[in-house]
């Protein structure tokens, strides 16, 4: 395929502005998928994406589009919008020369519109502004065009107004892609350089690496070397994603596709690696900046005998989500486990859910914490602390963009939810790291019948209210047991909050009348499953999902 007819582009936007819906329409109009009413976010393939209605993984699809007597090969990459997954976006952009920047005609420019715009802008990509949802009753595309001119300095004439839902003006989007976005700057005659920008693990075929060819061509039987490991492989299969894997004879410079080469170990296909032909070494392409974790949590198998299975599952999942950092850890109560770093709380929840759904793993996650540098002092002074305003810019008559400096722990857990409800859903939010700052903080421990719950140890400023809130929520999420349970929050040896859970007699078989043995077995099995999701602290059983729930304040 001649490289001048190739276009690689991403769809970027604030969450819910319609990226995945536009991707559906682009797939339909180019015949990659059949047109039916059932096509809803078809690139969101993961169970967690379907259940939550959000994209967490960037997905690639190759489309063919004919225009003015030429057939173009378009590689489309749909990306997540949520701030926790912006690492996926920046990696995807390395495979692209342009982006469709989607803005909701009703909501206008939002926080991640700005953040994603700058990711594309810094990568010097062609940016095509697309105003979506013009079918909505309150749509005001003219206002959004003014915002785009004002904030991004893009002339409003360059905006394309569409409805991804109804399929209005989709052809104009495709025309803009082939007319405005340049072809990749790569030659098939150059030596092979294939950048790995994503990879997944398949039980039967091993590692499937998503690659962009910055030079050369690639086909079955080629002998290729990894720049990272210097290991040699023979290519078994190359192909494109339409959006399912579709084997092809050859991949050419400028194309995006996949590669299978008998890699059995997940460590062998590092994201950011460059493959080259044996005996034709090349300068490796700049990899990706490692993601910077913002939230940390411990993770342990519910059952220690599951440790090595869980280790394999974590290895495979982190191959697919390289923004998670993993360090081995162990705790006296929970045994061997890991300390994981995530980009945010949603990221942590999604990772946990994917482990359970895709790898059938049962894990305990400890309370999320953010990195601190501690200086021990005798003061236990508790001050309320606020964000410090850094800047304020008017986007238009109705909208302002404000920058504040906040302690990270104040914003990772529930700040976004609070902001949303305070502003009736109008405000949006994004953050970046501003480094460590000094603060007056105390360590607060939680006890159940005198046993410390180390998963819930946190570093707080407002210890009294935080302790009370955690104790109350624990009371709500721990089922009654055969004995009374005392819940205490303490700073050092000083108890600052207490709740009690009354004793109760629990007998699942009490519901069984007569001797229905199958019913009895079923109930016992259900109880055993329930137990699997419990973690025993001292003599108290705590449902494992309580740990995450408890730290999410209403
Ligand atoms: P993403 O988070 O950017 O991928 O957004 P989605 O494609 O998942 O869309 C978010 C929501 O907006 C879904 O409920 C879509 O049905 C809806 N939506 C997308 N495009 C349009 C549109 O053109 N008009 C209307 N009315 N709704 C749309
Ligand atoms: Mg989406």
UniProtKB/TrEMBL annotation:
Record key words, sorted: GTP-binding, Hydrolase, Membrane, Mitochondrion, Mitochondrion inner membrane, Nucleotide-binding, Protein biosynthesis
GO CC, any one term: mitochondrial inner membrane
Catalytic activity: GTP + H2O = GDP + phosphate + H(+)
Signal sequence annotation: none
GO molecular function: GTP binding; GTPase activity; mitochondrial ribosome binding
Transmembrane regions: none
Domain Tr-type G: 4-185
Positions of GTP binding: 13-20, 78-82, 132-135
Gene3D superfamilies: 3.30.70.240, Elongation factor 4, C-terminal domain, Elongation Factor G (Translational Gtpase), domain 3, P-loop containing nucleotide triphosphate hydrolases, Translation factors
Main location: mitochondrion
Location(s), subcellular: Mitochondrion inner membrane
Family affiliation: Belongs to the GTP-binding elongation factor family. LepA subfamily. Belongs to the TRAFAC class translation factor GTPase superfamily. Classic translation factor GTPase family. LepA subfamily.
Function as written in the Swiss-Prot or TrEMBL entry: Promotes mitochondrial protein synthesis. May act as a fidelity factor of the translation reaction, by catalyzing a one-codon backward translocation of tRNAs on improperly translocated ribosomes. Binds to mitochondrial ribosomes in a GTP-dependent manner.
Protein name: GTP binding elongation factor GUF1
